[in-house]
């Protein structure tokens, strides 16, 4: 039986650039991981209070948990800014999305 001619070798396709949804998924995973660590810190705070640890020790750990929460908030806002810069086709839309993200920062930061 005759063989079929081999098809010409296809050049490798260029790697796809990350999409907004890829970026969002990676960012959300990072934020969730951070929140889980903060959850552990808060559980530790409860144990510290229940065991009668000194107020200064508790306050120090509260400040650490608060700072971790602030950093997590800013990571989430970075995702919002990246989406605004990459997901909208026109410069006007980008400006509107950045303005929206700025309003969120002003309201909650």
Task: Summarize the structure in words.
The protein is mostly helical. The protein has one domain (20-108): Up-down Bundle (Methane Monooxygenase Hydroxylase, Chain G, domain 1). It is built from 3 helices and no strands. The protein has helices at 20-50, 55-87, 91-108. Helix 1 runs antiparallel to helix 2 and helix 2 runs antiparallel to helix 3. The protein is elongated and about 70 Å long. It starts with 19 loop residues before the first helix and ends with a helix. The relative contact order is 0.11. The mean pLDDT is 82.
Compact description:
By secondary structure, the chain is mainly α.
What are the main properties of this structure?
109 residues; Methane Monooxygenase Hydroxylase, Chain G, domain 1
H/I helix tally:
3
CATH architecture: Up-down Bundle
How many domains, as an integer? 1
Described by strand count, sense and barrel closure, the largest sheet is:
none
CATH class: Mainly Alpha
* Low-confidence spans: none
The total count of strands amounts to 0
Question: Helix/strand-derived class?
Answer: mainly alpha
Question: Which topology does CATH recognise?
Answer: Methane Monooxygenase Hydroxylase, Chain G, domain 1
SS strand fraction: under 5%
Inertia-based shape: elongated
- How do the helices and strands follow one another from N- to C-terminus? HHH
User: In oligomeric terms, what are we looking at?
Assistant: single chain
CATH superfamily: Metal-sensitive repressor, helix protomer
Rg, please? 24 Å
Which helices and strands, and how do they pair?
Layout lengths: L19 H31 L4 H33 L3 H18 L1
Helix pairs in contact: 1-2, 2-3
């Amino acid at each position: 039986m005759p063989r079929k001619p081999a098809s010409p070798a296809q050049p490798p396709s260029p790697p796809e650039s990350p999409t907004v949804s890829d970026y969002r998924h990676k960012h959300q995973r990072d934020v969730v991981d951070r929140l889980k660590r903060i959850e552990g810190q808060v559980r530790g705070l409860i144990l510290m209070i229940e065991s009668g640890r000194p107020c200064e020790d508790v306050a120090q750990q509260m400040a650490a948990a608060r700072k971790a929460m602030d950093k997590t908030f800013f990571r989430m806002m970075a995702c919002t800014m990246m989406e605004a810069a990459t997901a909208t086709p026109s410069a006007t839309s980008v400006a509107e999305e950045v303005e929206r993200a700025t309003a969120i920062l002003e309201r909650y930061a």
